[in-house]
């Protein structure tokens, strides 16, 4: 902004005045502002938020005033207050420019020593506009008036009067942009706007009374309860006014009265919204007090009690309105004891954030991150938590509540002051945005609209700081305040808790133990006493680590509170921190790498499977950071990991040490894969491939180590080659976290070796490998299952290649042929493994397909599995493995098609379920829609099954019913929504459709 020179030696040019439109010189001439005696006016005009807009509005007023322009011109030259208010308002608001163009004498409202009207004055002004007088039934508290004007005339009169008063407030609020007028405090503006809303509702009720009761007094008692920002007396310039109606009696006439009030108010002033009433827009518009109380006692949700924090009698029967507030207040302050209090509020906050389109999140100052709603939500939550024990928190406005929370020690004084400043700054920006066109908005102009941003900066009193222009100052201030809100949003809940367990600030007020426990319970901790103990242990003493933890914990705990199990996550974090006491890098990484800390909290608060792995493989934490190509958790390749396991274990001659080395790397890889899975970085096939690869590598490492030890003991080479054939999910490369490793052991005596001795040696090798892998360990188990070998558990553990060939040629049963479809070499002698696979091809891919007898046998076995294998008490609809449309159903269907057609369709020679489904679709052996249904069911069931293990920390196939566990499984499974019931419904829908495909296939 250009400063006027001290000497007025010349008329400044339009450019120096901020006038860029080509019509500016002509417009100035029209006003007669081209002489030296107009210099003061021109410099004042240059200080308007948009000088061109102000000038255009003045020209329109000039046209409307005619001879009256001289009076305004004289006033502007002598009355700096008038000049500041008029130029301020028409330079910041095109809507008020339009208002003054239509009502050019309106400028007279802005002259002289102007004081804002009182609540009573505003009410009198609006009632006078419609000639309203007290109704015959009115009393001192029952503010019911009857207008003498109704219909469109009443609406027009009220609209002009209300707009006049709104303009007066806006002009006083904006005057500081032009002249050295006082800046109105935010709270003053909010209260004044709320008083205007009360007066407007009173006038609208007067018109409604005259309309609904034209021939007699209004005998009904109707109370209008202000809610939301109006109830808290912190209303915006342009906002819906939320109301609730209470009537005695509640009948058709009082409903009509309330409806007419809403119609008149919405036409003349602002949108009158009654959607916060019981049952929302579906509920009755008007209820009696007893009906309201009954609803809140039985049906109301947590957010409805949160909304009642702001309830205030606004007009109508104020005594009845106060009875409404008094009756519901105890329920409001007891809401934090409800079982669903935390989950309801968290879900509502996430729902609000999700409503903001991604492209607007950085510009949204009301609903985005670091926004007004963050402050309001946090303050209201703390009020609800502590207000049941502290009546000083029973206040309505956000700023007053912050002051009370700080006075009570629930929020740090500095934090409260900073949060208040940021809140008031964003409210100022919101007000300026709305004033421009008197439209409800809270979205900043896009970054490339410099003209709109520059206008906003000047309207919000932004001044260049010597290095940055007003536009740059605005951008920096918006970012700074949004960041501060996000930072303080975390501290708001947790800093006072930490003050209670660690003396971070000797002058700080400390929460009482009861208050700290209440606050933790409200943040989602089911065992708040234990959580408080963990905080104390983490911050104990005056050590550097304790101080760093105290700095980190507010943010860490906020992230934890959004996870399914904050209690388990906090305990895991304490255990991990205690295990990392000697690792200097640990806290440094959490402090300096925000992504690491946030991802760690999500993982710890979501999974009981991962924490022990991270404690034993802490270097994985470094991979939580972002690298040049994205998260480092994705930098590892499963094939490279497998080679690393094999080469690392090969350094040891002792099988025990070799397997320990392999286990260590497996632990690291499991921690990496599971963490990336919980964080949504890997899809189902990637997870299955990685788990199968690491299992195979550990198997190979153990086998190689045992064979090396055997050769050393014998002092001679091994008497036979040895291979491990993966079966089931291991063979298909589709292992889950809770899967066993189904295998076959095959050997082939070397030339000149005694077959019996070679087989005996091979059995010893197999037995030793199984014991090494199955040894007790705190790691996820390495269970080896050989139940799919010929003759099942009654058959020999190891067979020669020739023995397998003879058996399969002569004795193979239908289930054994089916099992061979997923056979694949996973460890040992690769040549032997390949010869085994070629040998079984004739069995598993028989010429002409399997016989109808075999198909009937498979159907019989499948029916038996369906009826007998499901665990007792399991729900067949939600058992991910054996349930309807679950993994077994899909896999049996795929395998039956393979058995019938694989000889003629080579692409079906595949052990992977998903890849085989692709081949089935490409060969048109099943419709594309059926293939997609089976694929979706397999992926959904596998994802759910893996999520069950990650959440519970142990193998499980049964989805839980509704509750915290189901919510946790849904979140870890990547369900995009707050309602775990919807996740379950989707699972049931997907598997039900897949089951229909299975039944058609097995019945064909």
Oligomer: single chain
- The total of beta strands comes to 15
What structural class is derived from the secondary structure elements?
A: mainly alpha
For the record, what is the CATH homologous superfamily label of the largest domain? Beta Polymerase, domain 2
State Rg: 38 Å
Q: Helix tally?
A: 41
Average residue pLDDT: 91
How many domains make up the coordinates? 5
CATH level 3 topology of the largest domain: Beta Polymerase, domain 2
CATH class categorisation of the largest domain: Alpha Beta
For the largest beta-sheet, the strand count, sense and barrel status come to: 6 strands, mixed
How far apart lie the N and C ends? 83 Å
At CATH level 2, the architecture of the largest domain is 2-Layer Sandwich
The rough form would be described as elongated
Beta-strand residue fraction: 5-15%
Q: Helix share of residues?
A: 55-70%
